[in-house]
Amino acid sequence: MISTSGFQPGTEPLAMGLPAPMHCLQAFEALGRSGSLVMAAGELRLTPSALSQSLALLEDRLGIQLVRSLTPQLELTAAGERYLGAVQRFFAQVRDGLYEHTAQARARLHVTAPQALSRMWLGPRLAGFLARHPRVDLVLTATDRYASLGAGGVDIALRMAGPEDGERTSIPLWCDDMVAAASPRLAEGTEGWSAARIAAHLPLIDHPVANWAQWLAGSASGGSAGRVVMRCNDLHLAIEAAVQSIGVAIAPKLLIADRVRRGELVVLSTHVLRARTYRAVIAQGQEQRPPVHAFLAWLQEQLPAQS
Asked: Which domains does the chain have, with CATH numbers?
């Protein structure tokens, strides 16, 4: 017989493995993931005051300060950052267990990817993944910043190369070719032009990820960039500018494949520059989580016809 003497209704013994009521952990996870008191309160359908009280109760039970500042911007302590990761892994395991063994439960998957990849290639194909996995709630964050796994509950980060360490598994996806692309109007009469002639006689669009100096350096004809009419730090914007006949852009072949098929862009030269490898980066040991495994398998299926 298990004695329950000493426990008051509505409280949980620490021996149960939870340091505070579940709603406190939910409040902290939503707060850490969203980075906003107002957004987290709205998600949980609580008032900001009620959410703050749940956080205070969790800190009191733990005896640890988790949050240094709530407003105007959330700032977690070092202990808070570590504990957020533990709480997020706990909730992921609970959701995955239900998802795997019940027909009604849902799983959540948070993917980050560079903006151009998200907008031009991944986004237009996601309907296929969601149709196959209707119980996965997908969160896609388009950002060119290096997003660390666990920050904001990120499960998979799609990156071009990037830092690696022993705590993460890096899965190579594909290597792309950087090509010179222009609108059909701008490309008219350029058939057979060398890379050097293209760079010397056509207006150019430059971008740090795909710039003309790097592309020309590997060409047989050499040459240097001529009249650069536009410089931007957004690859998607550079490609859209090329579609609008502003200039010629260097772009990853995979990302412009749909626009080439639609006749919006033309590849001007056979010369290509090998780009860095795209990778899926996940926390070590997480690749067999049902939603993670499903997304990676689906992603691999999309590549042969595109690469």
From this structure: 14-95 (1.10.10.10), 103-173+277-302 (3.40.190.10), 175-275 (3.40.190.10)
CA distance 102 to 18: 24
Nearest to 277 by CA among 205, 179, 178: 178
How many angstroms separate the CA atoms of 121 and 135, rounded? Answer: 23
What does the pLDDT look like over 204-263, one tens digit per residue? 999 888 788 888 887 766 667 778 999 988 899 999 999 999 999 999 998 999 999 999
- Tell me the per-residue pLDDT of 10-68, one tens digit each, with 9 for 90 and over: 444 443 456 778 899 989 988 888 888 998 899 899 999 999 999 999 999 999 999 99
- For the segment 15-26, what is each residue's pLDDT rounded down to a tens digit? 345 677 889 998
pLDDT in tens, 75-97: 999 999 889 888 887 887 787 77
Residue 290 in contact with residue 109, Cβ under 8 Å? no
